[in-house]
Amino acid sequence: MPESSVAVVILNWNTRSMLERFLPDVLKNSNHPGVTVVVADNGSTDGSQELVKAKFPAVSLIRLDKNYGFAGGYNRALQQIDSTYSVLLNSDVIPASDWLMPLVRHMESTPDCAACVPKIKDLKNPEMFEYAGAAGGFIDKWGYPFCRGRIFNHIEKDHQQYNEAGDIFWGSGAALLVRTREFNRSGGLDEHFFAHMEEIDWCWRMKNRGKSIYYIPQSEVFHLGGGTLNAMSPHKTYLNFRNNLFMLYRNLPSNKLRKTILTRLLLDGVAAIKLLISDGFGHTRAVYRAHRDYFKRIPDLRRERNNLLKNVTTTTHAEIYPQSIIMDFFLRGMKRFSDLDFKN
């Protein structure tokens, strides 16, 4: 392990059982000189903090006074970290025994890399990629996120087909290694997102600043989480639709902003009808609320966008798929990342 220090930061909110189950493996597989495991607790009331103090004395505990969400919790936690690197790690992740070294080595050798991610696989079915991040994230020209190994609800088996390290567009917040100082200087995750897509927004900001986001397949973690659109709660549907519009408005180049937003609003309308048929009125109402709250925030988003534009050095990214992933997936039957043609 290189000499640089690393903090493995697990954000927790009322997931005591997860900490009890997963922390022993995180500690065992992160046992390197210079590595500290940290639990940042978002004001839990289930005894999580007491468990950490009693059962895991080697773990550093950051006590936050309330639930600030994924974005706010990590922002406040990393402001208290002085390690060179920080890993944002979900509380339901078991890392492989040699997971940290490949990530840190890449960051040490690549100064312009803002973050890197491991291969994320399904803890319940370790031969499969995991929904949240799989083998690195991308977006299409309309801003729909997808991964190598997972497009919408189609998840691939890992046949080592994505075992080549390389640039990606975004890395999952389930296991994301960042430069602590750069993360804090950038403003961290946008807290208006609260949860969902804030890490994609942050990665996009970093790429617009000329930084890279990298996938390291030699590092693996196993994630319990995951899901599909049909399994979402209406609140999760609301956050995903609203936050996607926030992300697009903040980061798109000016010559693509209007067309992309208008197209997304129309596509969201189609999705709302589909959700009404398949999942009921609650999800359709969630899409309506997402659009309503997006329009309410446009004055603030415009100010945020103008500030972000001051740091933009490039808006051309090879990791943005130039086609519509919806058209390719649903109409052309292109279910795997390897089916996609990024050149056209």
Automatic annotation (TrEMBL):
<protein>
    <recommendedName>
        <fullName>Glycosyltransferase 2-like domain-containing protein</fullName>
    </recommendedName>
</protein>
<dbReference type="InterPro" id="IPR029044">
    <property type="entry name" value="Nucleotide-diphossugar_trans"/>
</dbReference>
<keyword id="KW-0808">Transferase</keyword>
<feature type="domain" description="Glycosyltransferase 2-like">
    <location>
        <begin position="8"/>
        <end position="128"/>
    </location>
</feature>
<dbReference type="GO" id="GO:0016757">
    <property type="term" value="F:glycosyltransferase activity"/>
</dbReference>
<keyword id="KW-0328">Glycosyltransferase</keyword>
<dbReference type="Pfam" id="PF00535">
    <property type="entry name" value="Glycos_transf_2"/>
</dbReference>
<comment type="similarity">
    <text>Belongs to the glycosyltransferase 2 family.</text>
</comment>
<dbReference type="InterPro" id="IPR001173">
    <property type="entry name" value="Glyco_trans_2-like"/>
</dbReference>
